[in-house]
Amino acid sequence: MERVVVTGVGMVTPVGVGSDASFEALCEGRSGAGQITQFETDERFPTRIAAEVKNFSPTDFMPKKKVKECSRFIPFSLAATQMALDQADLNLSDEERENVGTFIGVGIGGLESLQSSSLTLEHKGPGKISPYLIPSLIGNLAAGQVSISHGFGGPSFAHTSACSSSAHALGEALRWIQYGRADVMVAGGAEATIAGIGIAGFAAMFALSRRNDDPTRASRPWDVGRDGFLCGEGAGTLILESLTRAKRRGAKILAEVTGYAATSDGYHITKPAPGGRGAVRAMSQALKDASLSPQQIDYINAHGTSTPAGDIAEAKAVMEVFGHHATDKKLWVSSTKSMMGHLLGAAGAVESAVCVHALERGIIPPTINLDNQDPECPLDFVPHHSREKSLEHVMSNSFGFGGTNATLIFSKFKD
Fold it and tell me: Which of 66, 73, 255, 261 has the largest count of CB atoms under 10 Å?
């Protein structure tokens, strides 16, 4: 099969607009959490904090007249993709452009547009609903707007699998190139669910932290005081390219995508399977796909959401797969959700971009707010401060509601 490499990365996150800005903020341990500003909250909302993208202007990345066509997640994706394409500098021919695929995973889509339009319908009637409503909120329009903007004629669709959405998008884009169906794939994820209905819905499930008076310390994976995740928002895009094409054009190769696996718990709509058995199979199968032993993985960017059950399940799964390599703390694990919150459908892509940067720079971002580590999770979670280490192989985990799991492995490129 064709080898697949990463030649461009773009990120829009709660800690920075831009790939370098986001990664540097994460390595400094800066939190993007704060009080919600996108809608008015009051004491009826048990959670009034989130990790919002700040200082973002859609018109920096798309024509002003098109902004009205889009819910918030779509400009995020257009921006991240433009950054990734700029870095990759693909120099596509017209024939090649017709075969570039666009896979952008989205978990929910334009939730804020759905909420506001529901109110318009109730109070003003159907005649006041925008003709752009449906194209603005459906999940595949992140990929659709990207492909339209750049004239990409290959497959264009959204993978929707909750918090694994964009990890699945990347994995399936990997397969598309490996099997010779395309030479270039634009793959990633986008999400923006910080709307009243979204925050209320997650809070009703007791999934969100309620540390409203201390937002930057609210997301605390593997800490005994964790009480749920924070909603984040943003987008990440990676340009995947066949090694043959990348070498032919003399591209700068950032990393190689060497492993991917997807599994299902088959257990519960929200709870992880006992012992993280679905996660165990995802990580084990990804290692097999990459032809790597567990001892060859240097770092895991974990799912690590800061929920009581999920964190334990993932830690147990890592211990089962990696054994003494993990429990002897030779394997480093961290959760960048401690700073960015949970980007839901975009999480896998953004965290994969973090993995690519970690490989390139030899820096592992920390898990902040890990003050009192849960004794049921006896791993090295890189608490508080980033670390430097020469990395060869890194793993990214994404697990979602419905018991869906995806694991990706990125490796330092070697010819």
Answer: 73
Q: What's the mean pLDDT in 233-240?
A: 98
**Angle separating helix axes 277-290 and 308-322, nearest 10 degrees:** 40
Say how far apart CA 226 and CA 97 lie, in whole Å. Answer: 47
4-248 CATH choice from 3.40.190.10, 3.30.479.10, 3.30.365.10, 3.40.47.10: 3.40.47.10
260-411: same fold as 4-248? Answer: yes
Residue 29 and residue 289: Cα distance in Å, rounded? 33
CA distance 221 to 218: 9
Distances (CA, A) of 105 to 10, 151, 189: 15, 19, 4
pLDDT band at 259 (very low <50, low <70, confident <90, very high): very high
Q: List, for residues 54-104, the tens digit of each pLDDT value.
A: 999 999 999 999 999 999 999 999 999 999 999 999 999 999 999 999 999
Task: Write b or e for each residue in 295-308: b if 16 or more Cβ atoms lie within 10 A of its Cβ, otherwise e.
Answer: eebbbbbbbbbbbe
Beta bridge partners of 10: 237
CB-based contact 109:192 (threshold 8 Å): no
Cβ(236)–Cβ(350) under 8 Å?
yes
For residue 325, give both structure tokens: 């390599």
Token pair 């995973």: residue: 105
Strands 101-105 vs 49-51: parallel, antiparallel or unpaired: unpaired
Report, as residue numbers or ranges, the catalytic residues: 163, 303, 342
CA distance 237 to 19: 10
